[in-house]
Write a structure and sequence with these properties.
The chain is built from 18 helices and 17 strands. With 463 residues, it is an alpha/beta fold. Helix 5 (64-72) runs antiparallel to helix 6 (76-84) and helix 7 (90-96) packs antiparallel against helix 10. It is globular, with a radius of gyration of 23 Å. The model has no long low-confidence stretch (mean pLDDT 95).
């Protein structure tokens, strides 16, 4: 430790966001950065903990004390080497990770002022790209080939590790570009897509082959790749690959089977988010295809991060108003949830940059019906509810509390999560990882699963 008293003398300082009146008019990243001096001071706050819980809390096993110390001492290259030893893509997690390590930080448990690990991580990685610390690796090939289905965070992490081990890796992706939810589910104001493009270009230079427009279909344990480019199909199980990794994520969003669901103006959240990202990438859509909140009252059903992303996108599209409803109770405000103490992740109220831009938030609200006129959405009938303990245990029982009411809305976005895929029994050389194996979760957990699966593949192919 360069300064063992820093945590006593220096308070947590976040970079913060761009002013609301500026950022809601564009899709540039909202988060700002600290200057080099302030960033080093923040890194100096990381203590020499007897038991660094940040190591344990991070799914990737990141070691913030080590790279924070290097950052404080000004050795940015060493900081990146230590960070990259466990995290293949810190430029992603440094922007969008909920920072499980910070929730486990001793300074958070005692003072509620954890070390700024996530921001430090991003600063270290951007410095590494800027200064040329990140170079192209050309590993010696071992003659074996691996196919990865899905170019999301799990698939990319698995492909990266296997490529560096010497395997010839081919990634099949159904969309027109790599990234998965990083590209099509997360708005540019949180993760600019040039950050993804930069990493994909590096992976290609290192020998990973990407094939786009290739969707996988699963039928009775058979894996078939449908290639849109040349309108062809082939069975990947009967191909030249020694092992196959399925990292296709959770493509099926949870629907809401309420009357009026078919009305024009009711969409899954990703329909809006993915289309907006494609528009920013230069893709054009017809007036009938375009999903926009411009001039509309918007209702978002679902209180998670995806719902928050819809709020920020709606503001930038020029909406009239945004309301977000959640069927579960309002989380506890503050830093500690007495019903969910350490070491569990704190279930406390989260206010994002999108919420700060303007939004009516309501909890314990159940959706009854979508209302419309001439086939178009005009409002949503909802009802306030309450939750009572289940005498038989398990999920609490929902009971009606208030009278039904109508929330005016011309656009309703369903952000209620995703369904975990079901997989048949595969041959022993087929592996499943990420959200496809575990259900929808965090990007950092998907990356960790991809790395673990790469090790399983390596063990299988070298046994």
């Amino acid at each position: 430790m360069g300064n063992p008293k820093a945590f006593l003398e220096i308070h947590r300082q976040e970079a913060g966001y761009r002013p609301i009146q500026d950022r809601i008019h564009d899709f540039s990243e909202v988060e700002q950065t600290l200057n080099t001096r302030e960033r080093k001071l923040q890194a100096s706050r990381c203590m020499d903990c007897g038991v660094p819980f940040c190591h344990w809390a991070c799914p990737l096993g990141n070691k913030p004390p080590e790279w924070n110390d290097a950052l404080y001492k000004g050795d940015w290259e060493l900081a990146y080497r230590l960070l990259n030893a466990t995290n293949p893509f810190p430029e992603f997690t440094g922007r969008i990770c909920p920072a499980l390590c910070e929730k486990a930080c001793v300074l958070n448990l005692i003072e509620h002022e954890p070390t700024t690990n996530r921001e430090d991580e991003c600063a270290i990685t951007e410095a590494a790209f800027r200064e040329g610390y990140i170079t192209v690796h050309h590993p010696e090939r071992n003659g074996k080939k691996v196919a990865v289905i899905g170019a999301g965070p799990a698939g990319l992490a698995a492909a990266n590790d296997l490529n560096l081990m010497g395997y010839q890796v081919t990634v099949f992706e159904k969309n027109e570009a790599a990234g998965g939810l990083l590209r099509y589910g997360i708005p540019n104001f949180k993760l600019n897509k040039t950050v993804i493009n930069r990493r994909i270009a590096l992976l290609e230079e290192e020998g990973i082959e990407f094939r786009y427009g290739c969707a996988v279909s699963i039928d009775n344990g058979q894996l078939t790749i449908d290639n849109e480019a040349n309108n062809s199909q082939f069975s990947i199980l009967n191909s030249q690959f020694d092992a196959i990794i399925i990292a296709s994520g959770t493509p099926t969003a949870r629907d809401l089977k309420a009357p009026g669901r078919e009305l024009k103006g009711v969409h899954f959240a990703l329909e809006l988010l993915a289309q907006q990202n494609r528009v920013l990438a230069g893709m054009e859509f017809s007036k009938d295809e375009r999903i926009t909140a411009k001039g509309k009252d918007v209702l978002v059903i679902g209180g998670g991060d995806t719902g928050s992303d819809c709020i920020g996108t709606a503001h930038r599209q020029g909406c009239k108003s945004v309301t977000q409803i959640e069927i579960m109770p309002k989380p506890v405000e503050g830093h500690v949830d007495p019903k969910n103490p350490w070491p569990n992740f704190p279930r406390t109220l989260k206010t994002t940059s999108s919420h700060e831009e303007g939004c009516t938030r309501r909890w314990n609200i159940n959706t009854l019906e979508f209302l419309g006129k001439d086939g178009k959405l005009t409002g949503v009938k909802v009802q306030e509810i309450d939750w009572k303990p289940n005498p038989n245990g398990g999920r609490p029982i929902m009971v009606e509390k208030g009278k039904p009411e109508i929330i005016k809305a011309e656009l309703c976005l369903l952000a209620m999560g995703f369904l975990k895929p079901e997989h048949p029994e595969y041959p022993e050389n087929v592996f499943v990882c990420g959200d496809s194996a575990n259900g929808a979760s965090l990007v950092v957990r998907a990356m960790a699963s991809g790395k673990q699966t790469a090790q399983k593949v390596h063990a299988f192919l070298t046994k």
